[in-house]
C-alpha cells in the first residue's frame, strides 16, 4: 500500500547514460576494495544489468566484489603503466615480468575496450589543490569515533587516497574534497576532539602538528580545499539499494533516518534488524526505476503471508547467495544463509589474500548500530549472544566478534546433564565428555589444558599435532573426510559436506553452532568441537615453543 508521504530518492543519484558493454571474461585493472592503495589485474566474472562482479586474478572467489559499470575504481588494461601507478599482477607473477599482451594470450582473453570505462576528467586532479604528501585529519571509517593523522597518498582525477600515517593500507579510502570524513590540520583542536597520533609516535598524548610536519618535511592541505554539500535524502524516501550481506541482489528500500552525511536504509518487508547505515554518496544506492532502466533484477518485498520459497528456512530468503561470499551462489540451510540468526551475529572475515595472519572484515557483524554516538563509551552496547567487543589496541579501536577458544562453563554444565541422562552412552563418549569437561573446569584452560592432553589424544588420535593453520586450508571434502574419521560421526560427515563447510568455516564453529544450529547429537558434537579446540591448542603451543 502506498502512502502519500513517500517519495523517490534525490535526483543526483543519477541513471547511467550508457549501456553496460562489459562481458564475462574481459580483463581490466582496478582497485582492490580490501587494499585500496593497490591496483590489481581483474577479470569480469559476472554481468547483471549495469553491475559487474570482478575477480582478482590468481586468488580465491572469496575476494570477488561488485561495482557499477561506470565505477571510478576500474581502469582499462595498461592504465597503471601509462599513469605511473604500480600494477599488482596475478598470484605467481613478478611485477617486473608481467606483460598484458602475453597474459591475455596465455589465458585466451581480451582486454575490456577503453570506451567502456568512465572517461577521465578533463579537470586537473582535485583542482590542483591537494597534492600527494599533504597532511590532514581524517576519520577512520572502520572506527568512526577516531580522527587520525593522515596523508594524501595518491591522486586520480578528482579523488585522492587518504592514508593513516604509519598504519597499513587496509584502513585507506578514496574520497574527494567534499567528503565529510576529512578535515584540515587543526580541526580536532578547534572542535575539542581528540586526535589520534601516528602509530609508534614517541609522545602520542602530546602530539603537535607543527613539530610533526617539520620532522616529516610535509605541508598541510589548505583549509579552503575542504568543501561539503548536504546529501538531500529525507526519511520515507524510496530507493533501490544493494544488499550488503548479499551484494548480487538489489532490493526495494526506504530511508528511515538521516544524519549529516549518512542515511539509514530499510529493506521493505524485512525485519528492522537488517537495517543499516551507509554514506549518502555510496554508489550502491540507486533511485527508483534504476534496475528497470539498466536491466538488473529487483528483489520485491517478501509477502508476509507467503510460504518461504526454496529450501532455506530463513523467512524471506530464497536460498540465493552465501555468507562466505561469491564462492558459493546459493545455500539451503541456516548455516550458509546471510540472514540467519547465527550469521547475523558474526562478522564475515577473510584471511588477507596477501598472506600473513591478518584477518580482514568483509561484512560487519552488526547492521543496526547506535551510530548517533561519536564514541563507544558514550552509551552501553546491548548485551547479546555473539556480542561485539570493542577493544582499544595500539591507539585504535578494533571491532571483533568474540569467538570463545574454549567451552563455557554454562555450556559444559548443560552438556553434562544432557549426556549423563542418556541411557546408552558408550565408554568412549563418557571419557570424551570427562576430558572436555575437565578442560572447561579450569580457570586457566590455556595453561592447564596440557594436563589432560594425553587423554584428548587417546580419544581422538587423528587430531594430535594438527595445527589450525593447516586446517584453515582444508577443502570441503577434506573437512568431511576428517569428520568421517571421528568415531561415530559418519552421518555428520555427510551433513558437513552438504553445508559446504571448508576449513576456515570449520574453525569458526562454536559449540552453539554445532549443537543448536546444526542439530548435531551430543556425542558427535563433543568429538567435533573438542577437535576444533585441539587444533587451536596445537597452534598456540607451536607459537609458544617458537
How does this structure look, described?
- There is one protein chain.
- The strands form 5 sheets. Strands 1, 13, 14, 15, 16 and 17 form a 6-stranded mixed sheet that branches. Strands 2, 3, 4, 5, 6 and 7 form a 6-stranded mixed sheet that branches.
- This protein has 16 helices and 21 strands.
- It has 5 domains: 27-116, SH3 type barrels; 130-221, SH3 type barrels, CATH 2.30.30; 237-341, SH3 type barrels; 348-395, no CATH class; 409-545, Transcription Factor, Ets-1 (DNA polymerase, domain 1, Orthogonal Bundle).
- The chain is globular and about 70 Å long.
- α7 (409-421) runs antiparallel to α8, α8 packs antiparallel against α10 and α12 (476-485) runs antiparallel to α13.
- The protein is of the alpha+beta class.
- β3 (35-48) and β4 form a beta hairpin.
- Residues 1-6 and 364-456 have low confidence and may be disordered.
- Residues 474-538 form the SAM domain.
- MBT repeats lie at residues 1-90, 98-198, 207-301.
- One of its GO terms (biological process) is chromatin organization.
- It is found in: Nucleus.
- GO terms for molecular function: chromatin binding; histone binding; zinc ion binding.
Q: Give the structural class.
A: alpha+beta
Assign the CATH class of the largest domain: Mainly Alpha
Distance between the first and last residues' Cα: 65 Å
Number of domains: 5
Q: What is the number of helices? A: 16
How does the major sheet shape up?
Answer: 6 strands, mixed
Query: Which topology of the largest domain does CATH recognise?
Result: DNA polymerase, domain 1
- In the CATH hierarchy, the architecture of the largest domain is Orthogonal Bundle
- Helix fraction bin: 10-25%
Task: Please indicate the percent range of residues in DSSP E strands (runs of 2 or more).
Answer: 15-25%
What's the average pLDDT? 77
Cα radius of gyration in angstroms: 26 Å
Unreliable stretches covering 5 or more consecutive residues: 1-6, 364-456
Amino acid at each position: 500500500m502506498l502512502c502519500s508521504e513517500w517519495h523517490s530518492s534525490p535526483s543526483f543519484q543519477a541513471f547511467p547514460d550508457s549501456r553496460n558493454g562489459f562481458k564475462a571474461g574481459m580483463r581490466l585493472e582496478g582497485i582492490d576494495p580490501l587494499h585500496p592503495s593497490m591496483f590489481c589485474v581483474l577479470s569480469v566474472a559476472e554481468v547483471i544489468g549495469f553491475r559487474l562482479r570482478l575477480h582478482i586474478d590468481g586468488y580465491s572467489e572469496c575476494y570477488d566484489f561488485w561495482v557499477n559499470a561506470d565505477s571510478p575504481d576500474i581502469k582499462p588494461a595498461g592504465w597503471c603503466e601509462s599513469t605511473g601507478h604500480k600494477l599488482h599482477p596475478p598470484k605467481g607473477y613478478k611485477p617486473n615480468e608481467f606483460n598484458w599482451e602475453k597474459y591475455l594470450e596465455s589465458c585466451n582473453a581480451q582486454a575490456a575496450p577503453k570506451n567502456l570505462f568512465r572517461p577521465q576528467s578533463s579537470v586537473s586532479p582535485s583542482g590542483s589543490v591537494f597534492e600527494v604528501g599533504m597532511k590532514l585529519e581524517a576519520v577512520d571509517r572502520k572506527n568512526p569515533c577516531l580522527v587520525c593523522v593522515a596523508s594524501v597518498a595518491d591522486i586520480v582525477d578528482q579523488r585522492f587516497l587518504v592514508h593513516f600515517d604509519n598504519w597499513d593500507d587496509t584502513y585507506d579510502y578514496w574520497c574527494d574534497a567534499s567528503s565529510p570524513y576529512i578535515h584540515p590540520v587543526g580541526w580536532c583542536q578547534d572542535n575539542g576532539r581528540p586526535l589520534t597520533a601516528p602509530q609508534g609516535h614517541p609522545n602520542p598524548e602530546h602530539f603537535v602538528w607543527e613539530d610533526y610536519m617539520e620532522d616529516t618535511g610535509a605541508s598541510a592541505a589548505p583549509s579552503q580545499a575542504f568543501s561539503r554539500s548536504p546529501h538531500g535524502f529525507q526519511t520515507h524516501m524510496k530507493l533501490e539499494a544493494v544488499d550488503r550481506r548479499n551484494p548480487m541482489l538489489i532490493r526495494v528500500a526506504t530511508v528511515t533516518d538521516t544524519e549529516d552525511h549518512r542515511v539509514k536504509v530499510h529493506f521493505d518487508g524485512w525485519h528492522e534488524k537488517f537495517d543499516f547505515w551507509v554514506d549518502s554518496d555510496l554508489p550502491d544506492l540507486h533511485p527508483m526505476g534504476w534496475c528497470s532502466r539498466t536491466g538488473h533484477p529487483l528483489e520485491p518485498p517478501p509477502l508476509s503471508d507467503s510460504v518461504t520459497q526454496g529450501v532455506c528456512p530463513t523467512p524471506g530468503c530464497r536460498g540465493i547467495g552465501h555468507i562466505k561470499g561469491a564462492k558459493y551462489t546459493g545455500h539451503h540451510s541456516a548455516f550458509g544463509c546471510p540472514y540467519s540468526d547465527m550469521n547475523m551475529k558474526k562478522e564475515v572475515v577473510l584471511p588477507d589474500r596477501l598472506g600473513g595472519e591478518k584477518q580482514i572484515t568483509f561484512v560487519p557483524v552488526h547492521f543496526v548500530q547506535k551510530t548517533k554516538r561519536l564514541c563507544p563509551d558514550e552509551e552501553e552496547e546491548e548485551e547479546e549472544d555473539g556480542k561485539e567487543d570493542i577493544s582499544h589496541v595500539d591507539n585504535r579501536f578494533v571491532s571483533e566478534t568474540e569467538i570463545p577458544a574454549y567451552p563455557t562453563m554454562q555450556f559444559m554444565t548443560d552438556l553434562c546433564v544432557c549426556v549423563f541422562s542418556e541411557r546408552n552412552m558408550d565408554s568412549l563418549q563418557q571419557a570424551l565428555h570427562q576430558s572436555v569437561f575437565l578442560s572447561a573446569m579450569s580457570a586457566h584452560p590455556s595453561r592447564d589444558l596440557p594436563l589432560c592432553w594425553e587423554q584428548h589424544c587417546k580419544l581422538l588420535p587423528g587430531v594430535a599435532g594438527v595445527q589450525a593453520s593447516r586446517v584453515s586450508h582444508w577443502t570441503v571434502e577434506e573437512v568431511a573426510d576428517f569428520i568421517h574419521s571421528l568415531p561415530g560421526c559418519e552421518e555428520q560427515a555427510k551433513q558437513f559436506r552438504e553445508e559446504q563447510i571448508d576449513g576456515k568455516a570449520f574453525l569458526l564453529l562454536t559449540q552453539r553452532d554445532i549443537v543448536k544450529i546444526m542439530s548435531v547429537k551430543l556425542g558427535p558434537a563433543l568429538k567435533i568441537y573438542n577437535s576444533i579446540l585441539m587444533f587451536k591448542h596445537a597452534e598456540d603451543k607451536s607459537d609458544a615453543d617458537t
